[in-house]
Amino acid sequence: MADSPRRTGRPRSAAADRAILDATRSALVDLGWGRLTMGDVALRAGVAKTTLYRRWSNKSELVVDAVAVLFDELELPDRGSLRADVEGVVLSFAELLERPETRTALMAVVAEATRDEALRARIRTAIVERQKHLVVEGRRRAQARGELPPDPPGPEGAAEAARAVDLVFDVIAGAVVHRCLVSAARVTPRWARSLTALLLHGLAATSPGRGPRPSGQTAAPLLPPRGAAGGTGPDGGVQKPAGSV
Amino acid sequence: MADSPRRTGRPRSAAADRAILDATRSALVDLGWGRLTMGDVALRAGVAKTTLYRRWSNKSELVVDAVAVLFDELELPDRGSLRADVEGVVLSFAELLERPETRTALMAVVAEATRDEALRARIRTAIVERQKHLVVEGRRRAQARGELPPDPPGPEGAAEAARAVDLVFDVIAGAVVHRCLVSAARVTPRWARSLTALLLHGLAATSPGRGPRPSGQTAAPLLPPRGAAGGTGPDGGVQKPAGSV
DNA sequence: GTCTTTCGCTACGGCTCGTAGCGTAACTCA
DNA sequence: TGAGTTACGCTACGAGCCGTAGCGAAAGAC
């Protein structure tokens, strides 16, 4: 883990590292998390069990490292529009989650992490933060194209932009993960289109039937007055102040 | 599980059932999924280990049953507007996920289910489908208020509506779950407001700083073109018609 | 060549799983 | 009331995995 420069003695076998990580992914596919044993991984990797424990102190950490690299294949080529970029990344993320080792491992590790702060931190840095650049990049491009408003100036503007990135990341990744792993349904191109439409245009776009449009009132002004947190919503509705919850 | 009416012999103790499920939730909080053992649950419940195995054949099924009821407390009181309804359900779902037994159990069970079709089905019926009525209800109300367009007529319209419900459910639940359990961040009222704004108005609303609005183009009219489903939208934006859902 | 570290191998105590067998408790039906 | 049936608590067991220790050998650094 720590790349402490070992000066003397027999160096650790890089081949063993690779073999172990490969074996871990393979065992994950065949056995799932619950039935995956360290002994079996060692056997598959052609390595002694003790060698595993010399590198990773437990199953969780081994699996995090084995899986994290899988997410690195996610990319965000410029597809020309925000819409296309979102749709593309949704589809490639879903494709990644279709693969047995990814879905099994991701959920298992996240589950284990609910009780393990160190593991949670490892996931955050090894996977979440590492992939967040996709949102940053897509957002930057959209702003350059004029599809999204520029960030407000000043430090508070930057903080707000960071929050927006976090939000969008959670929404997109969360929707795909939930669809794949909880609802246990496939991410089809049609679904990706729907999700993208929802993200771009809001809920009103999700049932876009050619049905007649009521009147203008649903098309509330796009931007809620942010300043007034507890103010009366601009929705034209009867609701209590949104901040009351 | 099956309520096969047992006619004769000593009946199963309902008190034991309750004690076991309570003990399961309690053990989940203290130990997490990985360290939870059947023996420990039996001990906490004041019950013999064999009694557990007479009712549930393995840990996963026990935990699903122990946790499913927790989600039933989710409700959707009419808060007067779509905005308030969404925000309310996001916050109460998040509150539910803050509780250790819920978060631990949900993820663990979902993780286990990635390798177990039967368990996946159990989760779908015991949790997902059971809670989807929240979306159906909120949507129906919003349509009645004129905040969302009505469903298109005919069977195809119904299918489209069902897809919309599934999508919204995955997006909302997914975002909250991802935020809580993967990103390991708290769901604050502010975050709930931002998510709601995104859902209602689309991405352009996520960085709504009071900064100057460029021109009209980002604040595209909320509602996609009336009549023409596939027509070129008057959105003034760059995107293709939203009606392709 | 010597020193240091890793390697594969074997063995071990400790823990959990899931099952079996026993005698007893609780309830139904005649 | 008594016989039959089922659930109960308890104990014990084989099997499997975990994580560690100790060994001699291999592989580089100096």
From TrEMBL, chains A, B:
Database matches in PROSITE patterns: HTH_TETR_2 (PS50977)
InterPro entries assigned: Homeodomain-like_sf, HTH-type_TetR-like_transc_reg, HTH_TetR, Tet_transcr_reg_TetR-rel_C_sf, TetR_C
Xref: Gene3D superfamilies: Homeodomain-like, Tetracycline Repressor, domain 2
Organism per entry: Streptomyces glaucosporus
Keyword set includes DNA-binding: yes
Pfam family, one: TetR_C_11
Domain HTH tetR-type per the UniProt entry, residue ranges: 14-74
Annotated Low complexity bias: 218-227
Region Disordered, annotated ranges: 138-159, 206-245
Record-given protein name: TetR/AcrR family transcriptional regulator
DNA-binding region in chain numbering: 37-56
Keywords: DNA-binding, Transcription, Transcription regulation
Lineage: Bacteria, Bacillati, Actinomycetota, Actinomycetes, Kitasatosporales
